[in-house]
Amino acid sequence: MRIFKRQPVRSPVNPDFIKYLQSLKQSDGVQISGRKMGYIPHPLDLSHLTGKKIFIGYRGEALPSFYDLRQKGKVSPVKDQGPAGTCWIFATNSSLESCLLPEEKWDFSENNMKNLLAEECPQGYDRSFDGGGNQWISTAYLARWSGPVLEKDDPYNPFEGNCNVFPTRKHLKRVVFIPPRKSPTDNTNLKTAIMNYGAVLSGMAYDDGYYNEQTSSYYSTEGFPNHAISLVGWDNNYSRKKFKSSPPGDGAFIVKNSWGENWGDNGYFYISYYDFFLGVENALFSKTGNPKSTQIIHQYDPLGWIGSVGFESDTAWFANIFEAESNQKISGFSFYTASPNSSYSIYLYENITAGKPRSGKLVKSLKGTVDEPSYYVRNFSNPIGVNKGQKFSLVVKLTTPDYNYPVPCEVRIDGISSKAKSSPGQGFVSANGKTWYDLYDLITDTSICLKAFAERK
Question: Which of these, 47, 134, 198, 411, has the minimum number of CB atoms within 10 Å of its CB?
């Protein structure tokens, strides 16, 4: 193996993921209320985001004491995950469908996502067809254009799985990873997201012992993250006396669950602002586009963002080299950002020499800022043509404030992403944009999360 003077450093692994691996039964296999709890902590640790304020453009808008997306026609119907550990998929689609309402009404297939992300399928994770997951895994499925597909094309079956592929109905444009709350009253980010976009996926630690069946309310003081829900509103005046044990103050979020309409309050319940794990893991599937039959995706990261690398600085360079399989026009790109107000410069080169991402001809460059930590897509105003067999590269300089691992990567980690793989000459990293290292030589089975989008000529 080649030795480099300044090698990139891998980001720390989420402590909750380590605990999950040590005791799988806590989240993937445990049965609560006769259901398999399915939220799995992710290896990515973004705890540096705790308490960070986002949605700057909306923060000046007054937040009411009560808000309910159901009254706005922005909540899709309650569904039932059955005995499978697929709550995270239902919460993902709940957010996706909500953000499209009321203008567009969709019923997306949970079955297709649970199946194509299983270890039995070519681009699956280390999970069974009915196994658990999280928002990062569902984002990967959507970002690679495996879905969403229609419920009527692939109806839900919690007991069986397959690897069938169906037409994708939307292309993912943005997922916002809302920072963890720093306190029970730190709810501006969540409320702003709900009020201005739609339902928010959130993780919780569910235990029957904390649920008050009489009032459909929940407040816990301990536990392990094991269930995903969607937040659809709030009530600042919801009495603390309605919970099985009284939290320190009033207030609750309105929750859409995935246990059918016969559970809770027609499928809904209230969770206290003071719940100990509420608001730690959050995602808003806020933006999609309409697919075209001529669109092409170039990517090496079908399993998505698993970890990050950096050079002990909040700025780093990364690049992918692709080869055009047909005559096409490069129309846009995507990557992930780990901090609010991340700034980037991106460059598109044609006629690349193998192993040299900044060789060839520079044909496009632009700068931008990503306001929220997110999966981020941007289109070029004027697509750039490349011919069949031509190599081209996307090169990114990215600064992620307060986070020293700017390069988002798909990483092979046993227990979740053992199918991750890479090849020489695909992904490259640099501390300064001049000296480039092939990521294949540095970290085993690691690919850069940087996609290129194109349209056939």
Answer: 47
